[in-house]
Amino acid sequence: MKRSLSILAAAALTMSASAQLPQPPVAKKVRVTDTLHGDVRVDDYAWMKVKTNPGVVEYLEAENAYMSAVTKPNEQFQETIYQEIISRTKLTDLSVPYRKGNYFYYSRTLEGKQYPIHCRKKGSLEAPEEILLEMNLMAEGLKFLGLGVFRVSDDGNLLAYSLDTTGYRVYDLSIKDLRTGELLSDRIGPVVSFEWAKDNRTCFYVKEDAAKRPYKMFRHVIGNPSDDPLYEEKDALYRLWLGRSSDRSTMMALSASATTTEYRTLSAAEPRGEFLVLFPRENEHEYYADIRDGEYFIRTNKNAKNFRLVTAPVANPTQWSELLPHRPSVKLEHAVLFKQFAVFYERENGLTKLRVYDFAKKSAVPIKFPEPVYMAAPGQNEEYTATTFRYSYQSFITPSSIFDYDVRTGKSQLMKQTEVLGGYDPTQYVSERIFAKSSDGTRVPISLVYKKGTKKDGTHPLWLYGYGSYGSSLPIGFSIPRLSLLDRGVIYAQAHIRGGGDMGEQWYDDGKMMKKMNTFTDFIDCADHLVNEKYTSRDRLAIQGGSAGGLLIGAVVNMRPDICKVAHLAVPFVDVINTMLDESLPLTVQEFLEWGNPKKKEEYEYLKKYCPYTNIRQIAYPTMLITTSFNDSQVGYWEPAKYTAKMRVMRSDKNVLVFKCNMGAGHGGASGRYDAFKETAFNYAFVMSQLGIVK
To answer: According to the model, what pLDDT value does residue 20 have?
Structure first.
């Protein structure tokens, strides 16, 4: 069957004589049928998946031209928002330096420059600066530049770093001699993860297969032309990652599926040795291991849905002793180890908690936080023998703040808070958490922030964001750009729906696989609650989600097309069935345990209930903004492109549908910070204009 056909049945910008408005492009249909489990599916836009077909770029550029024409009246509004973001951002700035060995490492930004400059100083912060990577020089002539690996050898002499120059997350690795500033001849690519051994000349790395699955580990010795293959993860459900233990004694190779893990370990002082399995994989047993002074610390879900922490001698790892028991209402997400103490990173009632455990006292104390809705997380902690613990704290109201907690005194010292220029006053904003009742009676948290004095009278515009997949919890983070919404009276809300990890492992399990519909109904119930409680009204509500959150929004508007005024689907995973049938694509096989395998009849029928692309109907949909990137490796550009084309011919309304494709970026959008600000300004201006805010 030919797929390289001319694809536009109508030009993008022909003008309607009556309305004098641009007409959207209409993609030509090329009928493709597929029969699975006796069910015949028709896909008129499957040809869009062929990236080398010139007609694909033609269609995307036509959509971009239509987008530009439709949003042209918003250009001044976009520029106003962009300038607001710029004016509030400290463009020449410095990160908080962290110590590793004899050096302090940090990055800095310069006004007018897109990318950070990575630097270090030896011995003290008063020492001369040494520039390690000048990303702005490296980005010259490129539309995109992303930094992956950034690893300095133990002796501080060699820097291994990897760069992605397309947005497709293909990272090629180079090694720089920091004593001379010269690049070594050793080039490795593409690399997913990387670690140095203790001898400062041997390193280990993992490569990915054609479907971008990290699967094969190698050993490399500086100067050697060939590398030693060490292990290949042959089970397509698993991905392979590399790391080093907290005490730096051991190389740790982790094979992980969505439900099961397995470690291989090797002494970092004996890099020519053989990696040995710690505990063989056991179905649905997730364990995460680290080492402190000859003892394993193992976070395990064996007989512990929300995980518990056990210890065992390295010499006898099966001899478990329980340090932190399982708690049904508290999920243990991570344990950060130091020589004298550990920090337990936990989640309770939807909020993150940090508790510091003193090994000498054998007791833990919490780090206390002042706000009812916030986010706290471990920061850059590279010194195993440190007596301080670095963590970050922020909320919808409090800018991102870096603290050092002194274990000896129990006091936290603020090292830096992101500066908001222009007289930002946090007392002028209110943050709260409320709960919506889902259709099955479950209480679903909603976090909100809005301008002080806002009344619940149903007149205010509200922006509701959701995700609800992979057990990921929504961060309660501060955003300088978001101030442009709040200061115009927009209420910003996040729905912590099932499928995410906000309320523990069971919360995740209740929104995946054959319970995925809970994710969508939870979001709908949250939106309805906000309307019923008069935070907003239906015609002043915007909903947004990205990636798997784009699937969420796509499913929701099919189920409840009346739910909102405008919907933004960012890099949306909307062609679920077709993507999950193509095992050559990145993420497909490993995510059978998240979404299901459509080759299994029962799982196919369940996927078909909510797949956004499959369920587009001849009904009235809300106004839509759909954004994507041409080099996205996680959600192919063709998914939102197909979705847009089908939506254009199926929907019965005359509401605006805008599709925007960044032709030089990947899943996260533009890599340069100024370009990213412009993308945000575009999105904000479009959505707010649909909610009746035009300046």
So the answer is: 62
How is the chain split among helix, strand and coil, in percent rounded to 5?
20, 35, 45
Whether residue 445 has pLDDT greater than 80? yes
Identify the active-site residue in 174, 547, 629, 633: 547
CA-angle at 526, arms to 689 and 656, nearest 5°: 30
pTM for the full model?
Answer: 0.94
In the structure encoding, which two tokens stand for residue 250, read together? 């051991």
CATH classification of 142-328 is 3.40.470.10, yes or no?
no
Q: What residue spans of 476-588 are helical by DSSP H?
A: 483-486, 505-509, 517-532, 548-559, 576-581
Q: Determine which helix (DSSP H) or strand (DSSP E) holds 437, and give its type and residue range.
A: strand 429-437
- Alpha carbon distance, N-terminus to C-terminus of the chain: 50
The percent of residues in the chain predicted with pLDDT above 70, rounded, is 97
Residue 11 clears pLDDT 70, i.e. is over it: no
Kindly list the strands in the beta sheet with 351-358, ordered across the sheet, starting from the edge strand earlier in the chain: 330-337, 341-348, 351-358, 363-366
All structural domains of the chain with their residue ranges: 59-86+424-690, 142-328, 331-418
| 633 noted as active-site residue | no
DSSP string, 438-494: PTTS-EEEEEEEEETT---SS-S-EEEEE---TTPPPP----TTTHHHHTTT-EEEE
pLDDT at residue 2 above 70? no
Q: What's the rounded mean pLDDT across residues 146-175?
A: 97
390, β-bridge pairs: 404
**Per the residue annotation, which of 247, 667, 671, 689 is the catalytic one?**
667
- One-letter identity of residue 185: S
Q: Name the helix (H) or strand (E) containing 624.
A: strand 623-629
Token output for 645? 């084309």
- The per-residue pLDDT for 372 is 87
- 547 given a catalytic annotation: yes
Query: Pairing mode, if any, of strands 541-546 and 566-570?
Result: parallel
Block residue for tokens 């490492």: 105
> Which position among 164, 247, 510, 632 bears the catalytic label?
632
> Residue 131's beta-bridge partner residues?
119
Decide: 52 and 630 in contact? Cβ < 8 Å: no
Distance CA 565, CA 546 (A): 18
496 as an active site residue: the answer is no
Q: Residue 361: exposed, middle, or buried by beta-carbon count in 10 A (0-12, 13-18, 19+)? A: exposed
Closest to 498 (Cα-Cα) out of 466, 462, 476: 466
Separation between Cα atoms, residue 484 and residue 486, nearest integer Å: 6
Q: Are 434 and 446 in contact (CB under 8 A)?
A: yes
What are the pLDDT digits (tens) for 646-675?
999 999 999 999 999 999 999 999 999 999
Q: What kind of fold does domain 59-86+424-690 have according to CATH?
A: Rossmann fold (3.40.50)
How far is Cα 505 from Cα 417, in angstroms, rounded to an integer?
32
Residue 23 carries which DSSP code?
P
